[in-house]
Amino acid sequence: MRLTMYTDFSLRILLYLGTKERVERSTIQEISDAYNISKNHLVKVAHELGKAGFIDTVRGRGGGIRLAHAPEDINIGEVIRRMEDDFHLVECFNPAGNHCPITPVCGLKGVLGRALNAYLQVLDEYTLQDLLINKNGLKMILQQQNIDT
What we know:
Helix content: 40-55%
Strand order of the largest sheet: 1-2
CATH topology: Arc Repressor Mutant, subunit A
Low-confidence stretches: none
Structural class: mainly alpha
CATH superfamily: Winged helix-like DNA-binding domain superfamily/Winged helix DNA-binding domain
Number of domains: 1
Radius of gyration: 18 Å
CATH class: Mainly Alpha
Mean pLDDT: 92
Number of helices: 7
Order of helices and strands: HHHEEHHHH
CATH architecture: Orthogonal Bundle
């Protein structure tokens, strides 16, 4: 299973914000500079994270984004389910677009379905806090990236 770049960027935004104090706002430009990612891409991702309730967004002067919940309350499995737009691993996962002639007699869908469920169950065991195991090291690298750009 490969996550989309959109989901990757979502997790990176959450990790960045997780290195900050909950009351501290960060700008999209800061995050863009830290990861060397297009600001335009991050604006879209941050908007969706806000709609999903993972981050708080404040527009205008003095605005920015911050985590809407404590890192230990942000479940990674939930983030991935909300940000991924397609879990159709193979054609037969999508009834509307399935034209595979062997679907009625093929066991692949069942096997891959179980694998997908196992994958998501593992992700459900982790929170953002679990990914911040070396918060100080992460913060140092991200700050250095901001200085270098």
